[in-house]
Amino acid sequence: MTRHVDPAVQRAHADVVALFRTTPAADPAGLHAVCRAARDRLAALPVLDPHDPRTWNSYELLTTNIRTLLCYLGEADVPTSEPDRFRALLIRLLHYHYNSHDAEPGVLLAELVHKDWEARLGESHTDTIEAAERLAACLHDRGDAEQARPLFERILALRSKELGADDTATLVAACNLGSCLNALSDHRAALQLTQDTLQRCEQRLGGEDRTTILTTEILADSLSGLGEHRIALSLYVVVHQWHLREYGEDALATLDLAESIAFTHQELGEHEAARAVDADLLPRFERAAGMDYPGSERTRERLAKALRALGRDAEADEIQGGITTF
Length: 326
Known about the structure:
Blueprint: H1 7-21, H2 28-43, H3 56-76, H4 84-99, H5 103-120, H6 126-142, H7 145-163, H8 168-183, H9 187-204, H10 210-225, H11 229-247, H12 252-267, H13 271-289, H14 294-309, H15 313-320
Helix pairs in contact: 1-2, 1-3, 2-3, 2-4, 4-5, 4-6, 5-6, 6-7, 7-8, 8-9, 8-10, 9-10, 10-11, 11-12, 12-13, 12-14, 13-14, 14-15
């Protein structure tokens, strides 16, 4: 899989590097001016979808600019909270780190951004809460669900206070907390929270809304964690069909749901069904996000396990050798 860097990002990167090269090291006024110019140059970039793996090389390059810039912004007392387009860029960058499973730098960036916005914009500002959500998400993805939990709980409380219990953002916050509880194996608490959230979603948004579908997926995760695999499978299939209609068969979100279906077949001992799903899924994951993407690696491992359970050891050896021929 080949990904390119967007030409606009390449030009902005070169411009920012040039700005800092021309600034005298001991010139506070000059540093302040250059920081503002670099920040505004990056803020003017076109919007790239951080959920699309084709943009990830561009965001990887942007990360090098942003990490350096944030250090200088603090030194020059230039806020990261303005202009609005720069805040939006930082939020997209944090989404990229979560979506690409590059969580460690995502945590570091989110901590810096959230601290600055909390001081300058206030704890309850929409973007401050969004930065907190991104921090919690990256902590969760890094494997620190215990550390993420109080953040998710605080975000849900803030959303409920500012927007009300039935606002879409509040319902998403409840979903995020439910997912965190599942990661902590507190499946009953997650089930109780998610059942209530799903009822609110269906009443407020309808059965086909994206947030309702997200809640249904997390409910399925809770049921799976409690051993109710058959019910979970039926819900995963519904959610997968929705993603197929909305995003297509090769979108990462769709592939993630197919992975949940394959995993559940495996848990039910349905090895041929799991094999069939994973055999189709593996090349799709690899084309979309690369062989080293966590979803690709999990699917490869699961496919080999299903093949061995079916007595097809030679094929399993081939898969685990990194050769796919579907």
